[in-house]
Every structure is written in C-alpha cells, then in structure tokens.
Amino acid sequence: MNNKIGVMQGRLVPKYQGRYQAFPIGMWQDEFRVAKECGLDLIEFILDFNAAEENPLLQSDGVSEIVSISKETSVSVNTICADYFMEAPLHSSDEKVAEESFKVLERLLEAAKTLKITDIVIPCVDQSSLKTESSVDRFIQQITKIIPRIEKQNINLSLETDLSPKPFVELLNKLNSKNITVNYDIGNSAALGFDPIEELNAYGGRITDIHIKDRVLAGGPVTLGEGNADFARFFDKLEEFNYQGPFIMQAYRDDEGVEIFKKQLDWIKKYLND
Question: Which CATH superfamily is domain 5-272 in?
C-alpha cells in the first residue's frame, strides 16, 4: 500500500486539559514539526466544540497559518475531524443547536477550499449517535441541504457511526451522493463487536478515511495489537477495494506521549507497507 499515513491532532503533544483527543490550543503549531520528525505525511485537524472560535479553521488568518506551517514542514492537512458535532449534533432536537451547527459546517467548507481538504469526518457516535428513527430523519434533512455544495466543491463528508452495516448502508443509500462517504475506525468497530469483513463487504468501496486504533470489546483504547481489532483480516480484505485514502493514527497514548506513539507506528507499518 502506498497510502499516506497521518496522525489525529493532539497525539504528538502533551494532553490538552487532560485530553489527547482535542485541539491543542497553543501547541498545534509544534505538532507539525513533531509529525515531520516521525516521518508522517498528514495531520487530521480537529474542530472541537470547546473554544471553537479559537480554532484556526474558523479564522481566515488561522487558515493562512495552517497553510504556511504545512508548506514549511511538508506535513499536509487534507482531512478534518469535526468533533464539534459530537457535542452539538447536526441532528440535535434543539433547533437552535442544529441551526448553529449547520452554520459551523458551512464555515468549515469555506476553510476547506483554501486547505484543499478532501474529507470532513462527521462523528455520529456517543452523544451524537443516531439512536432513533427521528434522529436519523433529522440528520438526513440536514445533510441533504449541504449535498449540492459538497458536490460542487468535490469534498467528502465522511460519516463515522456506531450503526451496524445494514442500517449504515441504508443511511448512505438514502443520502445518495458520491460525496457522502465512510470514515472507518477499526478500533471502534472492534469495541462494538462488528465483523470487519461484513463491514467491508457492505461499504468497503465507500471508505475514504480510516482511523487506526485498537480497543477491547465493549471497552476502551489499548496499545495496537493488544485489543480485539483484527488487523490482519481487515487489511487483507481492504486490498480488494483499491483504497486510496489516508490512514490516520488515532492510537492509544498516555503520558509517555510521542514514544508510545512511535512504537505503535512501527507496529502498524507491517500492514501498511505490504
């Protein structure tokens, strides 16, 4: 595989307010240089709900700074993980929340033009999970409104859900756009007890962004290779789909930070470099 390898923002710098799945205010510039030292191609930028207006993605000067640092380090930003929508779902039953989130999505799409973003990951998990028929209906209504724009820009909204394969495919079919794609997280899949072969058979050709981490069944993240993710079966099957997107390292880390990340990067390369 010759796919680009990247990292989820926050994995290569100290935890921000106790979290490493977060936009690291005041440290994000440094992460580009660490990513370069690690030999990575990409950083998947995060838009957090907390302090969203401080995120450079929502500031014209900030977007210019991302472009500048990316050129300086040769570490690209091609994808965005919009964690903002976990706290403020696009399909919220609160109309004000849903309306404001839609405006944020429009602003992200504007930033995406300058950054040449290929995918914006829309998480529909945990508190933003599509748990009910009404939540699915609201989500479809919201996404349908933005489809003409993403098709014109040729940018993907890559959906990350905790739906099993059948209802997920039904959702994709209802949205019916080549730019509504799948973000596949092998660790989350393992935690949910899904079969990666069944998932790939259902929507393998629609995957445009892959998150690499490991989790135990019904539990949390662990070091790659120590959980229930079946990497060997997954990567063998993935070969059938000519996957062209990036592999984004979202692997477990603790206070060791970069060192434990490097060990896991070396571990996963046996699959990525086959």
Answer: Divalent-metal-dependent TIM barrel enzymes (3.20.20.150)
How distant, in Å, are the alpha carbons of 48, 73, 99, 163 from that of 12? 17, 15, 34, 30
Give Cα 160 to chain centroid, integer Å: 7
- Of the candidates 190, 208, 193, 209, the one whose C-alpha atom is nearest the C-alpha of residue 249 is 209
Structure tokens at 138: 């609201």
Q: Is the pTM for the entire model greater than 0.70?
A: yes
Closest residue by Cα to residue 187 from 226, 158, 156, 157: 226
Confidence tier at 263 by pLDDT (50, 70, 90): very high
Q: Break the chain down into helix, strand, coil percent, rounded to 5.
A: 50, 15, 35
Whether the per-residue pLDDT at 274 is higher than 80: the answer is: no
10 Å CB burial of residue 260 (0-12, 13-18, 19+) is middle
**Where do the domains of the chain lie?**
5-272
pLDDT at site 261: 93
For residue 104, give the H/E element and its range: helix 95-115
When computed from its CA atoms, the radius of gyration of the chain, rounded to whole angstroms, is 17
Find the mean pLDDT for residues 98-126. Answer: 97
Count of other CB atoms within 10 angstroms of residue 74? 11
Exposed / middle / buried, residue 87 (Cβ in 10 Å: 0-12, 13-18, 19+): middle
Residue 168 has pLDDT above 70, yes or no: yes
